């Protein structure tokens, strides 16, 4: 179609008009334009920063980058966190000795722990059943979204692909429940003057915005 219509053309997929970019320099130029950075609306994925869009996404991204840098991400000091987790990963592999094991799951646990150390302020053991369940739900959603995402263009597919759709919804619900529990713990342990991790920082930001809102009313 690009041969016939050129490197930029549109087509209708289901009930939506889709614009296709078919040249590297055009795609690069498009990615630099903030007006096309929105994400499609999907009720199964309207959770958290990753799937927010528009002005909300810009504000969330700006705050998140600032907060993560505050806790060392992107700085040389953060290397120590990576080194410590690498040591834990090595120890876990040594425990398995000569028995076959799934290397992917161990690396997923290790990389996730590095993220959790900044966001949640803690790491999880490789045998922690709750954390393993969380990673499993994430992995399943990544695999299922390939088919579940069709509903963005054909909403009726959520009724036809009912199993995939419900599975994604169920996993997302469990992920939100897990995160809400972590946030609740942080609400009790929060010291506004001494945030320990990203969630503490985020709760402080919410409180600060609420105070600004009250001041203007």
Q: Would you mind describing this structure in some detail?
A:
- With 217 residues, the protein is mainly α.
- The chain folds into two domains: 1-36, no CATH class; 37-215, Cytochrome p450 (Orthogonal Bundle).
- The protein is built from nine helices and two strands, in the order H-E-E-H-H-H-H-H-H-H-H.
- Helix 4 (79-96) runs antiparallel to helix 5 and helix 6 (129-148) crosses helix 8.
- The termini are far apart.
- The mean pLDDT is 83.
Write the layout of secondary structure elements.
Layout: H1 2-5, E1 8-13, E2 16-21, H2 24-31, H3 54-70, H4 79-96, H5 103-119, H6 129-148, H7 157-160, H8 162-189, H9 198-215
Antiparallel strand pairs: 1-2
Helix pairs in contact: 4-5, 6-8
What labels describe this entry?
217 residues; mainly alpha; Cytochrome p450; 2 domains; two-stranded antiparallel sheet; 2 strands
Question: Summary?
Answer:
It contains nine helices and two strands. By secondary structure, the chain is mostly helical. It folds into two domains: 1-36, no CATH class; 37-215, Orthogonal Bundle (Cytochrome p450), CATH 1.10.630.10.
The description of the largest β-sheet is: 2 strands, antiparallel
- What is the chains' assembly state? single chain
Low-confidence region ranges: none
How would you name the CATH homologous superfamily of the largest domain?
Cytochrome P450
The run of helices and strands is HEEHHHHHHHH
What is the annotated CATH architecture of the largest domain? Orthogonal Bundle
Question: In whole angstroms, how far apart are the ends?
Answer: 56 Å
Order of strands side by side in the largest beta sheet?
Answer: 1-2
Question: Which structural class matches the secondary elements?
Answer: mainly alpha
Task: Provide the CATH top-level class of the largest domain.
Answer: Mainly Alpha
> What is the mean predicted local confidence, pLDDT?
83
How much beta, percentage-wise? Answer: 5-15%
Share of residues in helices: 55-70%
As for the CATH topology of the largest domain, it is Cytochrome p450
Instruction: Write down the domain tally.
Output: 2
Give the helix tally.
Answer: 9
Shape: globular
């Amino acid at each position: 179609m690009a041969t016939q219509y050129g490197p930029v053309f549109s087509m209708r997929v289901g009930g939506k008009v889709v614009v296709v970019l078919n040249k590297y320099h055009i795609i690069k130029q498009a990615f630099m334009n903030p007006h096309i950075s929105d994400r499609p609306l999907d009720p199964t994925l309207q959770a958290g920063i990753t799937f927010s869009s528009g002005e909300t996404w810009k504000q969330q991204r700006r705050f998140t980058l600032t907060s993560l840098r505050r806790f060392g991400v992107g700085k040389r000091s953060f290397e120590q966190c990576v080194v410590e987790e690498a040591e834990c990963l090595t120890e876990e592999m040594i425990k398995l000795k000569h028995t076959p094991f799934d290397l992917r799951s161990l690396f997923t646990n290790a990389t996730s722990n590095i993220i959790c150390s900044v966001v949640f302020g803690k790491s999880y053991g490789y045998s922690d059943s709750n954390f393993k369940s969380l990673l499993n739900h994430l992995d399943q959603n990544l695999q299922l979204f390939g088919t579940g995402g069709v509903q963005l263009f054909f909403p009726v597919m959520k009724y036809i692909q009912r199993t995939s759709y419900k599975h994604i919804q169920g996993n997302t619900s469990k992920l939100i429940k897990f995160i809400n529990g972590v946030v609740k713990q942080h609400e009790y342990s929060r010291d506004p003057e001494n945030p320990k991790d990203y969630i503490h920082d985020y709760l402080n930001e919410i409180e600060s915005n609420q105070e600004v809102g009250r001041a203007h009313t």
